[in-house]
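Give me a protein, keeping tokens residue-aligned:
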Amino acid sequence: MMKRGIIAASILLGLTTAATRGESYLFAYFKEPGDTGIYFALSHDGYHYAPLNDGTPWLLPPAGQKIRDPYLTQGPDGKYRLVWTWDWRGKSIGYAESDDLQHWTGMREIPIMADFPQTNNTWAPEIYWDTRAGKWLVLWSSAMKGEPNNHHIWSSMTADFRSFTKASVWFDPGYVTIDQTIFHNTSRKDLAPWYLVFKDQNQDPLRYQIRVASGPSVQGPWSNISGPITPTWSEGPSALQIGDRYVVFYDYYRPPARFKAVETTDWVHWSDATDKIDLPRGCKHGSFLKISDAVASQLEQRHDSSKTASK
């Protein structure tokens, strides 16, 4: 009776629940200071997330390293791929892959900015399959040592995560930008097919807010840049469609620090949705991925802490 009541309530709200579609939502995140690994949380409605694996890490960092800003996606080959910030300073990003979200292989450092010795940092990488190119588009933000606060969004292309094209600046709206994420709209023909969500990192005047641009492809070109859709001190956006709404979760990193969210039905008019969401305590800059209920059920069976306790 309770399940029917939830579904009925969602219909009254004009939403399609994950339960009616056979979909769930996976949230991959880290906790400061980044040395404990990557955590997963699961939701069946897109707004409320419960930690998986009894709140213990899902994937441990390489020895002596940290994992920050994880981005999780699934490729057209069905394989899951994970990239992350390898270190606070440096020229590399981290990479790992999995067939089932349970067992991860190929964990390694990718020196993606090796051609630029003056690179100060390589932050918050994300990857997107470019159908036209038949390759992966790799995005991140970097600044040079002589200009440590002058970040731009960079890109490279790869087919196998072994060889990469030379990195180049990919998006420069005329002010400092970091923390890019892309949303592919496949459900509304009256809206743009692609949206770029990014942090305006401008310091003078200080903004540190999230903005949105639209484009015809995963490579842009990007136009119609919006005004700020979040308050100052926002970063790490991640976009997700929940029913007929598009939700941008973001990391609000000034006291009281927490994840917040805004939502829209048209990518123009935004409203605060923070009161609707419930995410794990202490979660930081992560990403969201739709998965099937069958996959979600398998993930819910993992309990590393109980295995350790039984030894």
